[in-house]
Specification:
Layout: E1 6-11, H1 12-16, E2 37-42, H2 48-57, H3 61-66, H4 70-86, H5 101-104, H6 110-117, E3 121-123, E4 129-132, E5 136-137
Antiparallel strand pairs: 1-2, 3-4, 4-5
Amino acid sequence: AAGFDLSAIFPAGAYNKHAKIAERKELHIEAPNDNTLAMVVANTAALWEPFIRHIKSSSEGAELLASDDPLDDYTRAIFKRLLDLVAPDEEAKIVFAFETIETTGRCCSVHTAGHVAGLAYYDAAHTMRSIHPVYGPW
């Protein structure tokens, strides 16, 4: 309903041990063990209708429009609400695609996470893009 319509689960260890990630500790997913599940969540163009509807009709809309990054703030708010609903007593670690080492002290390779999870093929050798079998490159 919020527009994030692609997702896949994968073991954190598979991502951390991937050839593109293994030597780059700053990109590792913090997990108690290699079997800890991680999830990559993405979107297609289906994101825009709920995002625009939220801006137009919610009490947060004006605040989002005044933000330097309305879509990033919308994304944070949606995932905070989701975690509060499904796991209110759990401490989940979320790393957003828009986060960088410089801005937040953490980041992840969304391309590699999508590839490891089977959500998309990461064509690092040619296009440097992830390719979803239905929705194409991202």
